[in-house]
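User: Can you recover a sequence for this backbone? Please restate the input before giving your answer.

Assistant: Of course. Working from this structure:
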């Protein structure tokens, strides 16, 4: 769907929308349709609430047209509501007239509305060859009229457009089935990012074996698909700023390995690479908007399968850090991937700040449902920066505890540690495991986003399926913290 900003309305558009701030119908804009619009708004008890939309058909500009009134309290929700209402309605073009808003408010509102419409209209229909007509998207263009504030509105929209592109890229990766996106094809899908000035480095299994990544490779050894470590580098600071590392878990399909998951719902495990997907989408977003930041994105990409060669419960593996791990449960594989990826980026780039993202534990969904991702951190300032970024874009986080008592739960009698600590505090002991691989003096945050990357029903900013969670959060963190 294309989104354009303009100074005036185009003729012949199929749908027109006018803001009704506080429930006040813009009579001057509606002309002869104003009386009907007032009646429709009254009948629908419309008071301009954020995200609320009321529709009518009335004589307007020489024809009977569809008119939508919407609340202007939240620009993103307004754009989302309009897109959701018209996406499969048969309407092909929408004009949103913002000229009844104060001129100073139009640029930011137009940009937010465009973002909401862009995010909410994203669909994944690639494999639906017999989509019913009433479910087929028809809305192909949205024109947002800002009057004499066009230059300002375009400047406000440009960075948000970059974020929308990053979110779409992430959603596309997460939504693909496991036979389409696997470690090698994930890497191939990301090659296009080089055009944005992003450096791309790929380690194959031989290179990872030489580096001593026994934990990550232990997860991969049961699969016919070879593992990959994908490294994306972006430096918009011209070499001035120190790098910050974003590390993503990229289990492109997770059967649980020998500790096999229940069959019901296993098809959803194609999104177990949502952390890596968010890292890639973030790098795309910040490179597109040319952020003044230096970021290294690392994605540990594996497939976790049961096979005669797969690692067994009770096996001991040696991580790149030299620490040994007793594998109690092969379905606690994400932390084995992350620990080697974190060690690698520390040795190669020496970042002083690391943020990892992972669909790590089902226990996080039990704790927080699908309303918040969990955040664990060894640094209060870093944690607050990420919490604030999440609040700012609506991708909420909730801080969880760390501590010595939890850390002791992963001690092993035969190795340096176990990969699980038991049923109690499962998300916390997983975080404690990862923390053991963070170098002294490095600020670190772990985001367990297991409940956030996939939605079983439509939300404000997404259709059912991949949400792209994490991209907007990290982009805001980059803007508010790293670019300062």
């Amino acid at each position: 769907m294309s989104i354009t900003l303009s100074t005036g309305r185009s003729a012949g558009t199929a749908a027109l929308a006018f803001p009704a701030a506080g429930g006040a119908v813009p009579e001057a804009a509606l002309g002869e349709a104003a009386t009907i619009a007032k009646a429709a708004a009254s009948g629908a008890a419309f008071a301009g609430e954020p995200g609320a939309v009321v529709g009518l058909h009335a004589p307007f500009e020489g024809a009977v047209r569809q008119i939508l009134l919407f609340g202007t309290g939240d620009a993103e929700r307004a754009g989302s509501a309009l897109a959701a209402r018209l996406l499969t309605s048969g309407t092909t073009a929408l004009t949103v007239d913002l000229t009844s808003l104060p001129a100073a408010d139009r640029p930011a509102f137009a940009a937010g509305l465009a973002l909401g419409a862009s995010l909410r209209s994203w669909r994944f229909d690639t494999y639906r060859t017999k989509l019913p007509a009433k479910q087929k998207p028809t809305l192909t263009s949205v024109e947002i009229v800002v009057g004499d504030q066009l230059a300002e509105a375009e400047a406000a929209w440009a960075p948000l457009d970059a974020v929308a592109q990053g979110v779409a890229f992430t959603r596309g990766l997460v939504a693909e089935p496991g036979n389409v996106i696997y470690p090698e094809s994930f890497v191939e899908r990301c090659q296009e990012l080089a055009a944005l000035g992003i450096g791309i480095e790929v380690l194959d299994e031989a290179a990872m074996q030489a580096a001593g990544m026994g934990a990550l490779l232990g997860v991969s050894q049961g699969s016919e698909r070879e593992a990959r470590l994908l490294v994306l580098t972006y430096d918009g600071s011209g070499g001035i700023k120190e790098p910050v590392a974003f590390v993503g878990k990229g289990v492109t399909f997770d059967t649980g390995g020998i500790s096999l998951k229940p069959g019901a719902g296993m098809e959803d495990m194609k999104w177990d690479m949502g952390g890596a997907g968010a890292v890639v989408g973030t790098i795309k977003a910040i490179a597109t908007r040319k952020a003044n930041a230096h970021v290294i994105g690392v994605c540990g990409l594996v497939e976790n399968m049961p096979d005669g060669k797969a690692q067994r419960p009770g096996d001991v593996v040696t991580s790149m850090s030299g620490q040994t791990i007793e594998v109690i449960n092969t379905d606690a594989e994400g932390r084995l991937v992350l620990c080697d990826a974190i060690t690698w980026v520390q040795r190669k780039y020496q970042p002083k700040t690391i943020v990892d993202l992972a669909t790590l534990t089902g226990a996080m969904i039990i704790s927080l449902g699908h309303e918040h991702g969990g955040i664990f951190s060894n640094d209060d300032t870093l944690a607050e920066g990420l919490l604030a970024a999440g609040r700012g874009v609506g991708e909420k986080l909730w801080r969880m505890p760390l501590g010595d008592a939890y850390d002791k739960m992963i001690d092993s009698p035969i190795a340096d540690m176990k990969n699980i600590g038991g049923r109690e505090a499962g998300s916390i002991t997983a975080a404690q495991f990862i923390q053991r691989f963070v170098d002294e003096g490095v600020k670190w945050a772990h985001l367990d986003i297991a409940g956030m990357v996939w939605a079983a029903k439509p939300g404000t900013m997404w259709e059912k399926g991949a949400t792209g969670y994490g991209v907007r959060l990290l982009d805001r963190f980059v803007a508010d913290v790293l670019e300062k």
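That completes the design. The mean pLDDT is 95.
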